[in-house]
Amino acid sequence: MPFSFSPDDPTFIIHRGGKMEIAPTVALSSRDDLSRAYTPGVADVCLAIADDPSLANTYTWVSHAVAVVTDGSAVLGLGNIGPRAAMPVMEGKAVLFKAFAGVDAVRICLDTTVTALAPSFGGINLEDISAPRCFEIERRLDAALPIPVFHDDQHGTAVVVLAALRNAARLLDRKLGDLRVVVVGAGAAGVAVTKMLIAGGVTGGDVVVCDSRGALYDERPDLSGAKAEVAALTNAAKLDGDVTTALRGADVLIGVSGGQIPESALAGMAGHGIVFALANPTPEVHPDVAVRYATVVATGRSDFPNQINNVLAFPGIFRGALDAGATRITEGMKLAAAEAIAGVVEANLAPDTIVPSALDPRVATAVAAAVAEAAGRDGVTR
Amino acid sequence: MPFSFSPDDPTFIIHRGGKMEIAPTVALSSRDDLSRAYTPGVADVCLAIADDPSLANTYTWVSHAVAVVTDGSAVLGLGNIGPRAAMPVMEGKAVLFKAFAGVDAVRICLDTTVTALAPSFGGINLEDISAPRCFEIERRLDAALPIPVFHDDQHGTAVVVLAALRNAARLLDRKLGDLRVVVVGAGAAGVAVTKMLIAGGVTGGDVVVCDSRGALYDERPDLSGAKAEVAALTNAAKLDGDVTTALRGADVLIGVSGGQIPESALAGMAGHGIVFALANPTPEVHPDVAVRYATVVATGRSDFPNQINNVLAFPGIFRGALDAGATRITEGMKLAAAEAIAGVVEANLAPDTIVPSALDPRVATAVAAAVAEAAGRDGVTR
Fold first, then answer.
1. Torsion angle of alpha carbons A120, B281, B371, B58, nearest 10°?
2. A-proximal residues of B, 237-296, CB under 8 Å
């Protein structure tokens, strides 16, 4: 059945012609302007950079430009819709980069992902690339390139989830290390969230990660790669069962699956718990349902409270990394970003305020400062 | 010796931070804005495009976006300075695209050139890629992609040279078909200029093309590929000799070599002739010298009269191609562009006005209209 939509829908109206354009930042009204911005003047700038490549950071947009790269193989919760249909998301991301952190992002939808883009940008933000390919692509690019490479679906999500879980635990007067956590979804986000939570203080053995076949446990025969790695870090009890089984007595449900979780499964959770249903555009469980079984409920959507969305992380993380001249993004930088996001609303925590609003202008500034400082601490600056 | 420059030079001052930025064209100040421009609203736009890929032209920037792609192997007259040092030129180009034709261009400096970029853009402008690789890359991309692919160093230059030569001939009351033309340089520009001039009315047998070893002639033993093809089209007299020999009695010198041509060589030209010394940033012969031997002198630079620069062609050509939904750029479209450029100043021709100023706002509009019309005539519209 063809997808039906109305061109008069406000969402479609604002998308007409796309969401971004190029704006020259130099005057082009006189012959002198042209001689400087273009030939012949530009040749001197090229020669200066050829002689000292680091001058590209001063005399081109590299120091504030990021490539948002995708092959469209895993877009939102929509799956493999391809690079062309992924464009509205990538343009949206580019717009958020600019509006929140002054970072100029160009979304590039590739049929295949390549390292060759690096000379044009100060960083590469990978996006919507399906697991397990995304792990290998990121590993390879990160090793090959002298600029930060960041797969936002993994690490952006993980950073914001850690920030949100810190504040939710604080609000409920619980310690991260005492929480029983179930992560539903073992794709890019599930794997990264699990690792980040453990790095941030959650006890690995008390985390159970579920994929479509149920709980991951060490030596589950069908596991390999990233899933096997996560299985080895988690589920100390070697629980073998479905999501409903895993959720029995759990304090925290983190949905990053794109699927649905039945209300009956939530009913078995420990009381006064936490539900993050982060699938976009349709959460794994509707927040109106989740609130019956949990004290703190969050989704990834802009139209509900507690939006756990990467937009809280990626603009400031890249701004900070670019400001610091970071060559990569370390775990320390990600932890610092999570702490900074959590810190913005720490003084006025409430069940519907565990993360700042996506529109809060303090977030990117705080994240950028924390990330730049951590980059220096971790010794990854140029 | 390191390249020396002053950071206080006006050219370097205007290059600080680069010459372009991304400008969002949608509001992002409320939660509703976010819900529409990003998640969850954006998902519907993605699904609509997944269902009907042509909707990307309406709901993303594809219809006004062009990739400026280079590997930095042949930048201006500076040679293979690499993708990073090529960036100021590419940014300059992007800025001209926007200022003159409302086309949003993103320059991408690749270590290797790839077809994979196509889904993100409505056209691909290849740039500063060395010959003979550029011929094969363009041929392959043009065959593979459903969007216009245009190697500006070839065709942009060729279009503007044809426009300029038409007007110079008109001014001197000469016919194109009667001119003896020497093209110095048999790289990307030299090959394309020669073919375009012949398509535009110059007699092939009366053209002599020289490379660094002298005149090309059919069956010169060291020729292959594009040079052999050009040799077969030109030099009916099979003249074998250097530039000085070739220029004896010639009416027109077109320098697209990046090298230097001695004054003594110009002294042998026929009187009342035409010299286009187009190497950037340093013309093959200084215009103050050339004017002693020719009536009409032009260069590629912004700071001399008669600037024969691609900026007169590429913004309008892509604007016209995008407006028409052209799938490629035909010879008819290039000839139409040349005619349109020449037409803008036809009524007030003078030795220092054979082409419009690069700043003349009528140019891109006239070129776009002519190119779009030719695309329809040639049947290459979607």
1. 20
2. 280-282
